[in-house]
Amino acid sequence: MSTVALALVAVVALLHLWFLVLEMVLWTRPLGLKTFRNTPAHAQATRALAANQGLYNGFLAAGLLYAAAIGARPFVLFFLGCVLVAALYGAYSVSRRILLVQGVPALAALVAVLLS
User: Fold this and answer.
1) Which has the closest alpha carbon to 109: 69, 70, 87, 81?
2) 25 in Cβ contact with 18 (< 8 Å)
3) For the segment 23-40, what is each residue's pLDDT rounded down to a tens digit?
4) Rounded alpha-carbon distances, angstroms, from residue 65 to 4, 30, 75
């Protein structure tokens, strides 16, 4: 894979590590409340769901980083595809903003990997 492709894959992985922190650690704190436009009561009620979601984001990041580190292009493509599908579903079911924040970087990385 090219340096550009690897860099974009790393960006996607780092974004998902940040999502893990937001959803598992900061969900009920001011930054988490602001980021997800949540109320303290709703955040407290959905804390376990958010933590589970954060854990999955961590798995996506780990898969991307591991696959890129060992040069397993098919697995990099698989994990980027997973991120893209999650972004499309999130845009449909939660907020179109997810497509911009999560989907665009994943698509850019996917194209870069395919072209490298």
Assistant:
1) 81
2) no
3) 999 999 999 999 999 999
4) 15, 29, 10
> Containing H/E element for 33?
helix 30-35
Residues spanned by the domain of 88: 3-115
CA proximity to 14, closest of 56, 61, 57, 52: 61
Q: Region 100-104: what's the mean pLDDT?
A: 95
- Residue 96 structure tokens: 């179109």
What is residue 42's predicted lDDT score, i.e. its pLDDT? 96
Q: What percent of the chain has pLDDT over 90?
A: 97
Give Rg (Cα) of the chain. 15
Q: How many domains does the chain have?
A: 1
d(CA 97, CA 80): 18
